[in-house]
Amino acid sequence: MTLVIYMGVAHATQIRARLLAAGAASTTPVAVVANATRPDECATTGTLGALADLMREPGIASPAIIVVGDVVRCSVAAAFPRRDDVAQNAAAATA
Question: Which of 2, 47, 56, 74 is deepest in the core (most CB within 10 A)?
């Protein structure tokens, strides 16, 4: 199962509680991506059990999506490159 929640940052604690109550494992992989595709994009990964902690990471704020499920294991780094990697690639492309 894959679940993508748009604009869920403010309700992350309730989302976590409801998913756990519905039988999801606390070890279920989770990714949070704020400002996707923008220069100030920020992405982090963890587990459903630690979702509230992920929300406290620097740069994580709305607008953001929360991705829940094994799909998170499919190289989040490739799908959401770090900002400095994007800047370096852009600089190299214009050089």
Answer: 47
For residue 22, what are its two tokens? 């519905």
Supply the pTM of this predicted model: 0.75
Number of domains in the chain: 1
CATH at residue 25: 3.30.950.10
Alpha-carbon separation of residue 30 from 7, 26, 27, 52, 90 (angstroms): 15, 10, 9, 11, 28
Neighbouring CB atoms inside 10 A of 42's CB total 19
The pLDDT tens digits for 18-61 are 999 999 999 999 999 998 888 888 888 899 999 988 888 877 88
Give the domain extent around 10: 2-94
